[in-house]
Design a protein that fits this description.
This is HNH endonuclease. There is one protein chain. The chain folds into two domains: about 140 residues, no CATH class; about 110 residues, no CATH class. The protein is about 50% helix and about 10% strand. The protein is built from eleven helices and four strands, in the order αααααββαββααααα. A two-stranded antiparallel sheet has the order 1-2. It has a two-stranded antiparallel ribbon with strand order 3-4. It starts with 10 loop residues before the first helix and ends in a 6-residue tail after the last helix. The model has no long low-confidence stretch (mean pLDDT about 95).
């Protein structure tokens, strides 16, 4: 959900590079004349995205595509961008473009594919437009495909520096569950807030972050036990506070910063509840 650096690759360059090696002369003849339209459409896309109105783009406004079909554009992505040597170079540059090669949708897992923000079957003109292709993990890509709700395009949708991801330690009997929630910021427009909430829900980020946090806390259980034995709950809390500050300095809305803050704020957890 963090703002992702926009690709510096022009949509028209990608389109033309993918068209160069097409063996089927008829398909190539259908696609190539759309080159200038691809560039103009990409400019429209960027303008709409900057204004937070990507979902208002009317796909049919770019028709006709000469003799090219929707299937031709889908094929161009599947067979030329993904599978050809030249196209794959662009593909990999986009896939690895986020910080630490992370998924731009969840910011937790490694990106292994590209997600079409506007579906290529519905918006074929953007099938190989870099700013419509977000680095994504398989889980996020699959979850987004299953939903029609508008989500964030992290190349453009900036949630700002506020603390919009928070966590709490939910005590259940003698154990606990880390829980996460999205805190809508007063600086967000209603439309941005709706997209952010949909993003959090559609991609099941509460579950994703809870799973990652649970695994992480199991891994530091012995470390916390040692701190508790040597310095009591205060030593545990201080360690958690320092870890939270360290994570927040790098990424204030990482699940790590949120869970460390939540743990430090829980007297129960610091007093030994982490053994859960």
């Amino acid at each position: 959900m963090l703002l992702t650096t926009r690709p510096s690759i022009a949509a028209r360059d990608v389109f033309e590079a993918c068209c160069v090696g097409i063996v089927d002369a008829h398909r190539k003849a259908r696609l190539v004349p759309n080159s200038s339209k691809i560039g103009a459409a990409a400019a429209d896309y960027a303008t709409a995205a900057q204004q937070g109105r990507l979902q208002t783009i009317v796909a049919t406004s770019y028709e006709p595509y000469g003799t090219a079909t929707v299937g031709d554009f889908v094929w161009l992505y599947d067979q030329r961008l993904v599978r050809s040597r030249v196209g794959r170079g662009y593909y990999e540059a986009i896939r690895t473009g986020n910080r630490d090669e992370r998924c731009a949708l969840c910011n937790a897992k490694q990106a292994s594919t590209l997600d079409h923000h506007l579906p290529k079957a519905e918006h074929p003109i953007f099938a190989v437009t870099p700013e419509n292709l977000l680095p994504a993990c398989r889980d996020c890509n699959a979850a987004k495909l299953a939903s029609l709700r508008p989500t964030l395009n992290t190349y453009f949708d900036d949630l700002g520096p506020g603390r919009w991801l928070s966590a709490v330690i939910v005590i259940r009997g003698g154990s606990f569950v880390p829980d996460f929630e999205l805190a809508v910021q007063p600086t967000w427009s209603p439309a941005l807030a709706d997209r952010a909430q949909a993003h959090f829900e559609v991609l099941r980020l509460r579950t994703v972050y809870s799973f990652e946090a649970s695994r992480h806390l199991v891994g530091i259980r012995d470390q916390l036990a040692g701190l508790l034995d040597r310095g009591g709950a205060a030593a545990v809390q201080l360690h958690l506070q320092e870890a939270a500050a360290s994570w927040a300095a790098n990424d204030p809305n990482s699940w790590q910063a949120a869970i460390y803050e939540a743990c430090a704020a829980s007297t129960w957890f610091c007093g030994g509840g982490f053994r859960g």
